[in-house]
């Protein structure tokens, strides 16, 4: 078949014999490229007619994505095959051959990158299309596939550029000299590329060990942040207010951080309420139970109301309620606060925290304040000296506890 093709091209070149030799050779090579283009389109149309909903659809989509690099490689092959009968001068033919080899190597690397992306996307789509999919499993596969895909792209790019450069004689000789002095060269390259290599190996380790995954919720610098993108050298974190943290990927192997969705997205939210000691806990507990049980954000697992602490002024009530995710837990806590505050304000005002003060009047104080009706009645104070204890066995002396003492909430 190759012989017939070359014979056909030779006849075509003779048809352009009335043109200058260089121009006729170029036209013949253009005809070879056109034949490759038509052949590629014909094969593509045949493949696109393959029936099938699953495998057939994958073959069709794979063909559509690969048609450009494959078509260019076919043109390069056909033109390179036609070069021996093109009649070009030797130096031009050598330069053209070398150019075609470099282009073919570059397009081969590009085709490998495209194929890797198509296969990885098809795998993720298959995992995402399962009815019984697990969110943790899905995000695990997404992280592994994306990190490994970026690493593969980087390796393919380096190998492609290296193979293309090795086609040049000076670069080939330089490469051989580097191999001859591999010890010094590896030391210099290792020191120069240490940050890049550290992050590259860290990315591969994260893809395997999974300390973070795509869309994991983590705490960094006091901010909630979701893992938006994991590259081979850095991680993009999306903060709740749409800011972005760009963090080197090695950070997650060298520092401690909180991952709220590592094994499960469910969280237990905590709400603290400060109440007066006169608060009717049974009514408040019953109302909180109604609020949580009727909330659609509660997952039905954890709920409790306890007096967790107290001080000289108030007692602290802790409410815990679980939710399916961190954002739902946040919204559930806000809903609990809003409804219990409204309940305390409207139905249990005695439960609201208050400050107790006692203002003690004196003669000079009455003169300064002006209106005696604005002050509390005077308090009978003990004489100066040591405190002698309460009077008549009743709870007496002291500020606000004597005769006529009055407390203001």
From TrEMBL:
Region named Disordered: 371-409
Transmembrane segments: 15-39, 70-88, 100-120, 174-197
Main location: membrane
GO molecular function: mechanosensitive monoatomic ion channel activity
GO cellular component, one term: membrane
InterPro entries with a match to the protein in the record: LSM_dom_sf, MscS_beta-dom_sf, MscS_channel_2nd
Annotated localization: Membrane
Composition-biased stretches (Gly residues): 392-409
Key words of the record: Membrane, Transmembrane, Transmembrane helix
Gene3D superfamilies reported for this sequence: 1.10.287.1260, 2.30.30.60
Protein name: Mechanosensitive ion channel family protein
